[in-house]
Amino acid sequence: MTGDSELSRIGISLPKNLLDRFDDIIGVRGYSSRSEGIRDAIRSYITYYQWMSDVKGERQGVITIVYDHEHRGLIQTLTEIQHDFMNLIQASLHSHVTHDRCLEVILVRGDAGEIKAVAERLMSQKGVESVKLTTIPINR
């Protein structure tokens, strides 16, 4: 491990289907243990968070969301969040991936801090599987 001097033991609870998918991935990628895969996933999450934190200024971008549309109240909550940030949102596209899963693409333009705020609010909702933010600077 690079830069890790002490190990801490933690316990986490995961839905069985999520753990099964994770086990499949770590097997394909050749990890010798779940712990190695979890450490790598956490490092990746930290890197992504730091990258998002460095986004500044006026930006244009896309927020991609995958979520369970059957999760009680989620669609209304996502709509309310988007209304809270309607000054940033230029357009959105909704697609039904399966009976239970939806993909939504939201085009945004504005201050990077506000764009990150909407992405993080969407990300924190129960029933949201993933949120990906991609932006580019408006002024070069």
TrEMBL record:
Binds 1 nickel ion per subunit. Transmembrane segments: none annotated. Residues 61-136 form the Transcription factor NikR nickel binding C-terminal domain. Ni(2+) binds at residues 83, 94, 96, 102. InterPro entries: Acetolactate_synth/TF_NikR_C, ACT-like_dom_sf, Arc_rbn_hlx_hlx, CopG, CopG/NikR_regulator, Ni_resp_reg_NikR, Ribbon_hlx_hlx, TF_NikR_Ni-bd_C. The keyword Isomerase does not apply. Belongs to the transcriptional regulatory CopG/NikR family. This is Putative nickel-responsive regulator. It comes from Methanocalculus chunghsingensis. The lineage of its organism: Archaea, Methanobacteriati, Methanobacteriota, Stenosarchaea group, Methanomicrobia.
